[in-house]
Structures are given as C-alpha cells and as structure tokens.
Amino acid sequence: MEERSDKYLEGKHDDFSACAGPVDAVKLAAHQWQEFLESSPDPMWIKDTQGRYAAVNKAYLRADPGQTHDVIGKTDFEVQSRDRAEMYVADDQIAIHDGVCEHEFSAVD
C-alpha cells in the first residue's frame, strides 16, 4: 500500500469587499458637506454632539482672522477667548433646544 503525503492548508477566508461601499459612502457624504459649506459666502460650520468643530468653510476662517483649519476637532474653549466661547456654547444650546440662532454675525470683505 502506498502512503499518501498530500498536504493541504486549512483556513478561513473573509470577504471584506462589501465594507468598501459604506466607507466610500461616508467619504462621499463628508465631501458633499464640505462642498455645501464652501458654496456659501457666509461663515458656516458643523459641530459634533460634544461641541467640537467637524467642518468649517473658508468664509468662517476669513470672518475670524485668528482662526485656522486647526479648529477641526476642537471646542470653542480651545480656539476662542473664554467670553466668546461661553457665548458660542450658550448659542449652541439654544439652537439645539429651540431651533433658533440668537446671534447673527457680519463680516465685511
């Protein structure tokens, strides 16, 4: 009788190709939001639920010359004076709870 010396590899294969769709969708949504923000001549920004800046447009950066793109991921207290940060946080809370903006901002080019 002849001995068999067949070798084989046993393993598991996971197909992650389906994950590309959701990742691409998130990237597309982020790009669309940024395009929307940039289409406005007015200062615009998006904050997350913790009050951190998620996106700002160029008009926002021009309206406050001390600002840079470094605001992304930071709170008002990290990028503004204490008085201004307190006012912005209070305004955010009113906007969240009542759906209204308490202050209007004007910028002159």
Supply database-style keywords.
mainly alpha, two-stranded antiparallel sheet, 109 residues, 4 helices
Q: What do you see in this structure?
A:
The protein has one domain (20-98). It has helices at residues 20-38, 58-63, 76-79, 82-98; strands at residues 45-47, 53-56. It is built from four helices and two strands, in the order αββααα. The chain has 109 residues and is mainly α. The longest helix has 19 residues, at 20-38. A hairpin with a 5-residue loop joins strand 1 and strand 2. The mean pLDDT is 79. 42% of the residues lie in helices and 6% in strands. The chain has a two-stranded antiparallel sheet with strand order 1-2. It starts with 19 loop residues before the first helix and ends in an 11-residue tail after the last helix. Residues 37-88 form the PAS fold-4 domain. It comes from Candidatus Cryosericum odellii. Pfam families: PAS_4. This is PAS fold-4 domain-containing protein.
